[in-house]
Specification:
Layout: H1 3-26, E1 53-58, H2 68-83, E2 87-92, H3 99-110, E3 115-118, H4 124-132, E4 138-142, E5 151-156, H5 158-172, E6 177-182, H6 187-203, E7 208-213, H7 220-232, E8 237-240, H8 246-253, E9 257-262, E10 273-279, H9 282-294, E11 302-305, E12 312-315, H10 323-338, E13 348-349, E14 355-357, H11 365-368
Parallel strand pairs: 1-2, 1-3, 3-4, 4-5, 5-11, 6-7, 6-8, 8-9, 9-10
Antiparallel strand pairs: 10-12, 13-14
Length: 386
């Protein structure tokens, strides 16, 4: 290519560039640049859901015992129904009243349970030890009398149910001999035997009460043996302060009558069953849990609930129990509720003839909590009593 040709090409390129610039300057305008998009605000994350309150129960017997432990487990289920996912409950059954109780209670605290219920008298000392080492845990002990800053006690007035059972037994006996299968000779059990007898005497002054001790809460073979012994000794209506339905089953098998205990035991001996004295632990367990949830729970106290608070009742009274006896039961319930009736109102004497409650005097809770004698009408002596 010659120099002349090169110059011509350069000139043409320059003219093209000038023309393009002119078009930009006086023709179509530049499109404005869109502003950068503003990011949408991020929704704040929902507050984390509160962890449920972990609650544990230590049971002395199996949940299927039909009596004491079954009643406590019904109370646990009432908690779940009341509070839903605000709580998480668990239980350990068949925990002996021994060093094993301390191990189980420590394990419960170690697993993060913040409210622990021990449901038998023999857990008192182990629970005190564990409570002392776990200040952040709330402990509740059934039927005991020792407390701490983070441990309180609760009980039901089972003697009220025992009295009403006695009213029925006294009316229904044909031999005037009643039998009691008793567990362990502590004031709670002695109080129930005596109250049963006082109730029976109110409807039949001629009765006498025989007692056989099995030295345990849940031992169906021993309970059966004791019930058989009482029947062989002339008792035709049986009462119990043990945890299984063995006594009622024995009465059914031998054609006698009996009263269910702690739970409605009708199904275990429908022909023998006169009534069942039942405990409803639900109201107390709901109260204690509500207090633990709202921060109002306080240790060191004692609650003793009965008919008045809906904790004790007598249910499933047999059809052949006379109408006037059923009416008397309703009067007793009303009187216990409004305070117009007291079971332990004197004069009350023991079976050695000593006046224990003076005429027109009503025994207080301190007196009832330390009973160590049998009332008039109960045969024998309390084991270990002076």
């Amino acid at each position: 290519m010659t120099d002349l040709q090169k110059r011509a090409l350069l000139k043409a390129a320059a003219l093209t560039a000038v023309a393009s610039a002119a078009l930009v300057g006086c023709g179509k305008k530049e499109e404005p640049v869109a502003p950068a998009a503003v990011p949408a605000p991020v929704a704040s994350a929902p507050a984390p859901k509160a962890e449920p309150l972990k609650i544990a129960f230590a049971y002395v017997g199996p949940v299927g015992d039909g009596g004491w432990t079954f009643a406590h487990d019904n109370g646990r289920k009432a908690l779940e129904k009341e509070f839903g996912d605000k709580i998480a409950t668990s239980f350990v059954e068949n925990v002996p009243e021994s060093a094993d109780a301390e191990r189980v209670l420590r394990d419960m605290a170690g697993q993060g349970n913040k409210l622990i219920f021990g449901t038998t008298f023999g857990y008192m000392e182990p629970m005190l030890k564990v409570a002392a080492d776990n200040a952040g845990v709330k402990f509740e002990h059934a039927t005991g009398y020792k407390q701490a800053e983070n441990m309180r006690t609760y009980d039901s007035r089972t003697y009220e149910g025992a009295y009403m059972a006695g009213v029925i037994a006294g009316k229904m006996t044909k031999t005037n001999t009643l039998g009691v299968v008793a567990s362990i000779p502590i004031p709670e059990v002695i109080r129930n035997i005596n109250s049963f007898t006082l109730g029976a005497q109110s409807s039949n002054p001629k009765i006498k009460t025989k007692v056989v001790w099995v030295n345990g809460w849940f031992d169906p073979p021993k309970e059966t043996e004791a019930a058989t012994s009482l029947i062989n000794g002339g008792a035709d209506v049986l009462f119990q302060n043990t945890d299984s339905p063995a006594v009622l089953k024995t009465a059914e098998a031998k054609g006698k009558r009996a009263v269910g205990w702690d739970s409605d035991m009708t199904a275990y001996g429908p022909k023998a069953h006169l009534a069942s004295s039942v405990i409803n632990w639900g109201p107390y367990y709901i109260k204690a849990t509500k207090e633990a949830l709202d921060g109002s729970w306080k240790g060191g106290g004692h609650s003793w609930w009965g008919v008045k608070e809906g904790a004790i009742d007598i249910v499933s009274i047999a059809e052949d129990v006379p109408a006037e006896t059923k009416a008397k039961i309703e009067e007793v319930k009303k009187g216990l509720t409004d305070g117009s009736f007291a079971i332990w109102k004197g004069p009350i004497t023991d079976n050695a003839g000593k006046v224990q409650v003076a005429k027109d005097t009503v025994a207080d809770d301190k007196f009832l909590s330390g009973l160590s004698f049998f009332v008039k009408g109960v045969e024998g002596k309390v084991p270990g009593a002076k």
